[in-house]
Amino acid sequence: MAVGQSFDDKVIRVIARLDIKGPNLVKGVLLEGLRVLGKPEDFARFYYENGADELFYQDVVASLYERNSLQEIVSATARKSFIPLTVGGGIRSINDIREALRAGADKVCINTAAIKHPDFIHEAASKFGSSTIVVAIEAIRQPDGLYHAFIDNGREMTGVEVVGWAKRVAALGAGEIVITSVDREGTGLGYDLGLTKMVAKAVDIPVIAHGGPGKKEHVGEVISLGEADAVAVASLIHYDFIANRQSNMQSRTEGNISYLQSGRTQFGRITPCSIKDIKNHLHDSHISCRP
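^ that's the sequence the OP posted. Answer follows.
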């Protein structure tokens, strides 16, 4: 939560996160074991029409293969969805940012390039404005209790301590931070409240919590106890869409459709819910959010 801002005057954003591999929407656990869910355009359109405040596309293998291939998906989404769109994965240069914005993105999210070349944050913010630049921090708790930042979708350790890095990211001009608990991601165990709160209290820019919610109550907790300014949700809403709204899927040429239709989808600790369900819960908990 930004310094000087009270809990009562925050308006929480609920952001639909869509992890992309090639042309497909995928989801894993601990950022691994990715399973194809379907066409991202189908999910994105539904989330936009049903109350998402923002969409966040993340190419989960872009940094690994040193490329970003989201331009076509972003362009298709931007033509039909009139809410902010953030694009991450493989953003390594000023030209990469320019191309993402040209394709229809409103913001870009960087991680690997930021860790390797911190001055890139300042350069990008100076060129495009802080509000355009989001920095992702993928955090894994170490045996000594400290959190270290990872890159390449949680694959590579950097040895960089998370809270100190968050402070530097803010000082370099980033407009927002997405803090991902890799330990919790996809598990349904809930957000890492301690991690989120440490980062939120350390910086004066908005902090987006990501990784771990298994029910709508977890969203309220990370706002009231973790002091997040926004939440990114994936499994919760993806599995709700799959279980209840497959008729909305217009594109059936890609994705593991046979898996989705088999009745074998198991959500484990996750109790699927819609964005509307999440927002209704926030309103009931006296947490301000957009309709």
